[in-house]
Amino acid sequence: MRLARWCSAFVVAWSAQASARPDDTSVSSLLGARDFINTTGLSSFVGWDPHSFFLNGSRIFLQSGEMHPWRLPVPSLWKDVLEKFKAAGLNAVSIYTHWALMNPKKGVVDLEGINDLQLFLDAAREVGIFVIARPGPYINAETTGGGVPGHVLTLPDRNTWFPYNGELRSNDTLFEEAWKDYVTAVGTIIAKNQVTNGGPVILLQIENEYYNGPGISEYFAQLTKTYRDLGVVIPTMDNDPGMFRNLINDVNIYGIDAYPVSACPPPPVRCVMNKRRTGFDCSNPLVWRDTPSPAWRPYHESVNPESPFFFPEFQGGSFDKWGSVRREGCHQLTGVNFQRVYYHQLWASGVTAVNFYMVFGGTNWGQLPYPPAVTSYDYSAAISESRQLIDKYGELKLQSMFLRSFPDFRKTNFISTFQSAATPIGINTTHLRNPDTGAEWFISRHQVTNDSTLQFRLDVGQGTTVPQAGGSITLAGRDSIVTSVNLKFGAHSRLVYSTAALFSNLVIDGTDVLVVYGAVGQTFEVALAALRNPNVASTGPTTLTTKFANNAIILNFTPAAGMTIVRINGVATTPMLLVIADYDTATRFWMPTIPSPVGGPLSNFVDLGAQTPVLVAGPYLVRTASLQGGRLALAGDLDSTTRLVILAPKHVTTITWNGALVHGSIRSRFGILEAVLPGPRKTWTLPDLTKATWRFADSLPEISPLFGEEAQEASGMVDANKTTTTNPFPPYYGGPAVLYGSDYGFHSGNLVWRGRFEHDDSLSIPTAVNLSISGGQFFAASVWLNDVYLGATDTTVMTANLSLPVTSGMLRTGDNYVTIVCCTPGGRQRDIQLPRGIQGYYLVGRPTEAQFTSWKVAGNFKGEDFPDKTRKILNEGGLFGERMGWHLPGYNNVAWEKRTPWLGISAPGVGWFRTTFNLSIPNDHDVPLAFEFAAQPGQYRGAPQLYVNGWQMGKRIANQGPQITFPVHPGILDMHGTNTVAVSLWALGDQPADLKIPSLQLVQLASFSGGPGRIPTNNPGWEELRGSL
User: Which run of H or E residues covers position 772?
Assistant: First the structure.
């Protein structure tokens, strides 16, 4: 027992029902000892034992999904995504907060707009979903610098044990001073919104994916003390990046991360178990590693058996990298079969707390991504980047509803993993049992991953092998199934066994309802306890055979497409209703919550008393429900004309959908309400951008000899004249100026450098310009001597050395300038202090005294003092067009040349294109839109560097790919007015394909009636942000 983590314990009664009040009185008043619950010692509202977490005395299965509010930069849409989380049966959402966005400059903390943590937590509380807060400070998250602000990256290096981070992420005083403002601000909000105060926050993560090392435990202690001093009383947690035994005793709850599949090379090449090497490469999605790790349970039992087995991050998909295959491969790799095989194996391993990374990925808009990541952070997640529900959402919901509906599964003991005589070679079955109720589960999967389909019968104990009434259990390739045994459902009924998957159970008008599903064409069997042979009647497409034996009614069936209702009466106990669905139909089942009658700020949380008294089938999405008297009010979305089916109490006589009365509803003899809902209606047309009027301007005046001091200063260029740096990666050569962007307050996005040297007849002609440029993986750089293009680097390495030949005809008498455009696509991550800029420079063939005499640099407009407080510090880069505000709505480009992006530019350089268009989408429709570029390759970048109403919503590297489609949300798009689109074309090559964008279109991804309603825009324009220029 680790006393540092077992701070306090108390006892709850097995049968007690905890209230929904955000205090501890219900816990302390419980009688009849059964479960010893560990707590922080500061509050008993959130507790835990070796099996699971508790909330206010109630045992829960923590089923969470990850989203990052800052990757959906429209706060009005956060609730939309949270409603989809809850509708999927999740009871929690895990979030990172982004230090660099919230603390862009030393002494400045910004918690407004897309940084409004309080607004997000209010939405979570309103929806009724708990929050796992993960504020870092370092967050990884495939974001620039792992979320560490640029101004912190300039701290001096005094820590030698970890060369990539220097003193960052250590207990060094300078680093503590750097994070103090941010952690204090975020921690204050977290403390205020703890579940103990009526808020949604139940867990707080300390740092992120860190390792044992000198000063790290002390660093964790600094962070923990800061939070505790602010009033945080909920448990702290961490996420070891693997089974590495890191920092086990430094938090209340230790957890591990796992990303168990990555696409592997075709056999016989062996997979490398390292996600940074082979992980997230979806080019071979049909090749899996053999099995989920059998080491999970023994590892957990060896390191922290007194706590629930918790995965703070478990693979929910896979992100796209530059140069990778397109998203379809990742979706296939981590699809519904992956979900069943690996998520079921979590259950088999005793996991009762898991957070799927990601459930909604969002967008790496602006400069958010770390270098290898593309703009899309769709992650092949259950909810797509465009907020659509994909097939993985349906599987996630089926699993989550099972976990939410059957509390016996929250406490199980491992019995065995076996291959019984009735089970063919190649199938492993894990047997679990609840020690208190006797409920049992048998989780079966292939021993070695393959595509073969096997059929078998399963020994479930007591001399029973199932199915009993004919047929076999079918286990398809790359799949897993769960057989449930001896399980209570409804108020008084008992499931003897089911080879069909369980969705949920409920009680309607004194009838116990069990909902099951299975694949079309496979045989399933459900046995229900009955004292005598009952009357069985059914309606629907599935045909059943029945058999009464051993005080059970056995129902054997092969699901047909659709829903079948089976009424079972005369069992000498409570009447029962069995709902049978095929898999696809079950994915359209919904059980929206009704707030607890107890009331209070937590009344809408399922684990704290919210009710689920109805089953709804058919709609694309059911967001919310309310039940007042005989009126059931449903809100949701439809993707087509839909048959609405509702199991509800008899007193429900009226149904509304999105506020409108549903006419023609009929209640069948089985008590089912049915109606037809009309689908979305298309009353709009999208603009054809190929026919729009485009305007063009050159965005690289820096190479002109006329671009003098006054123009440089007016455009935001500053002197790059520092001769020392605190960066732990020193310059290679050259000098005296240090040319690192962060040393001048420019931390992300494109940088433009301009170096000056003298030339006359008395000086030797340099033979080359030699440069060592660092910009992160997949960066590029272009170089000009005066207005002559010298060449470019376009590489997958983080630093490139160039030696670019110079001839006498390129030189001028007097001042000469070398101009360098560099450094997209992103920032840094683990090697977070790696400089972005020029690590070495000199003129080959020139003596030391005849080298560069001065340098200028430009980054995002005004650097850390950026004026755009809505879109924040990471939206813009340092191209001339960005600094001048050409991406902003309202800029007057009437004097620009009319030219389209598909005509392009005439030579390597940077061009800027703008147009406008109008939209008119009905408020009661949700219509995901995206900008789509042609897939043809070329050596160009930044076009798309796509700006929509001032927001940078996309980057495309034409010779790397794979992304060509860029979703843009309502709120950035004005769905009811005028929109401004700007694209920058940075051409590195001189071939026709390098100098133009073949096409750009606005496309509709889907349409739904319903949706989140009208979303307001907040898109400040040129006059507000650049009007003084």
Answer: strand 768-774
**678 in helix, strand or coil?**
coil
Instruction: State yes or no: pLDDT of 936 exceeds 90.
Output: no
pLDDT classification of 868: cutoffs 50, 70, 90: very high
Active-site annotation holds for 1024: no
In the residue annotation, 395 being an active-site residue is answered as: no
Is the pTM higher than 0.85? The answer reads: yes
Neighbours of 107 (CB within 10 A): 7
How sure is the predictor about 1, in pLDDT bands with cuts at 50, 70 and 90?
A: very low
CATH number at residue 199: 3.20.20.80
For 33-76, give the DSSP string: --EEEEE-SS-SSEEE-SS-EEETTEEE-EEEEE--GGGS--GG
- Domain end, chosen from 310, 331, 361, is at 361
Average pLDDT, the chain: 91
- 198-207, 263-272, 830-839, 920-929: lowest mean pLDDT where? 263-272
Task: Kindly indicate the confidence band of residue 276, based on its pLDDT and cuts at 50, 70 and 90.
Answer: very low
d(CA 898, CA 894) in angstroms, rounded, equals: 9
**Catalytic, out of 66, 83, 207, 209:** 209
Q: Nearest-CA neighbor of 605 among 199, 25, 303? A: 199
Residue 392 counted as domain residue: no
3-state secondary structure of 115: helix
Separation CA 254–CA 727 (nearest Å):
33
* Number of Cβ atoms within 10 Å of the Cβ of 650: 10
483 in any annotated domain: yes
Whether 382 is in a domain gets the answer: no
- The residue annotated as part of the active site, out of 66, 207, 313, 932, is 313
| Number of folded domains that form the chain | 4
- Sequence-distant (6+) residues with CB within 8 A of 167 are 155, 156, 157, 158, 159, 174, 175
Task: Kindly state whether residue 156 falls inside one of the protein's structural domains.
Answer: yes
- Residue pair 784/842 in contact by the 8 Å Cβ criterion: no
